[in-house]
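Sequence design from tokenized structure. All designs in this work follow the same two-part layout: the structure record, then the generated sequence. An example of the structure record is given first.
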């Protein structure tokens, strides 16, 4: 039996509800493990995988996986990407900080979950390459250590927040001016009103990004322990097929207008179908090559890796033609 640790998103429900045919050898035990939130089988999925090798396969941070591979750690991956986000809608500011445009972040203090969190790497890279922001002119505050410890360039100002700090509270108090966050800030005491997104219409920025680049940025990848992949040679391709089948099944959920508890989900679904001609939940290397190449550039520029990384370095050989 091998273990597979993933989050419980809608596209992963077929792994948990018995509708996905997972018969085969070896048997796969699916674990529901969160990263920032505690699920049935625990939390801290990235660290448990990349630091301790606790699972045979796991959904992990793309940025931390890059860092792990560049340092020769014993992992490989398959080109399925369980989590995606745009950076534009995940950049938040204190409404009193005087930040009206991306360039206004220069000279300010910005909070991150960690410097290596994939959303943080993406947001930093986008701000630099798309909006001309100098990352060296921002003061960075992190609350967590990186999953893979690395040395960053000396011209980057990074400090650790006091133990027990909460980024949402820090932003609402003005202890930090901005926040790049993979969740939505939720300060206590009715202080949500002092926090707003940097972009007044993030959907417009995100749609422009898709029109110019053709993809939805990747957050997570499925990593495997090298010893597990070497022992079960057909496992990488089998896992890839299982995730593709789960994606196909989950794509049918929203045909029911009341499948989601969100009242207007049906309208959002219709709008997305009209806006995006192609499926943005793509698997395989060819369909995701520009996405991965751009992120690799960001990882190199920010010191996560020490050389440009190619698909042959990142993914299991059996998936390189995908």
């Amino acid at each position: 039996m091998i273990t597979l640790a993933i989050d419980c998103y809608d596209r992963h429900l077929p792994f948990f509800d018995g509708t996905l045919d997972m018969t085969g050898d070896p048997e796969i035990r699916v674990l529901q493990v969160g990263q920032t939130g505690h699920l049935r089988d625990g939390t801290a999925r990235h660290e448990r995988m990349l630091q301790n090798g606790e699972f045979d396969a796991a959904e992990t941070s793309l940025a931390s996986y890059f860092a792990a591979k560049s340092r020769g750690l014993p992992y490989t991956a398959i080109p399925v990407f369980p989590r995606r986000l745009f950076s534009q809608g995940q950049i938040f500011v204190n409404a009193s900080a005087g930040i009206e445009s991306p360039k206004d972040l220069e000279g300010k203090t910005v909070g991150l979950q960690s410097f290596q969190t994939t959303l943080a790497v993406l947001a930093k890279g986008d701000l630099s390459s798309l909006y001309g922001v100098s990352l060296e002119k921002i003061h960075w505050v992190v609350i967590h250590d990186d999953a893979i410890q690395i040395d960053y360039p000396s011209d980057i100002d990074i400090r650790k927040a006091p133990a027990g700090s909460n980024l949402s509270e820090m932003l609402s108090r003005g202890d930090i001016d901005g926040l790049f966050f993979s969740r939505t800030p939720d300060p206590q005491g009715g202080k949500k009103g002092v926090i707003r997104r940097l972009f007044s219409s993030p959907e417009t920025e995100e749609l422009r990004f898709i029109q110019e680049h053709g993809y939805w940025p990747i957050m997570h990848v499925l990593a495997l322990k090298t010893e597990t992949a070497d022992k079960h040679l057909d496992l990488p391709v089998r896992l890839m097929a299982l995730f593709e089948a789960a994606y196909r099944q989950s794509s049918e959920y929203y045909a029911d207008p009341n499948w989601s508890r969100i009242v207007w989900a049906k309208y959002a679904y219709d709008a997305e179908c009209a806006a995006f001609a192609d499926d943005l939940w793509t698997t395989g290397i060819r369909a995701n090559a520009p996405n991965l190449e751009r992120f690799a550039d960001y990882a190199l520029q920010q010191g996560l890796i020490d050389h440009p990384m190619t698909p042959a370095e990142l993914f299991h050989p059996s998936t390189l033609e995908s």
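The chain has a mean pLDDT of 96. We note this feature because it recurs in several other targets discussed in the main text.
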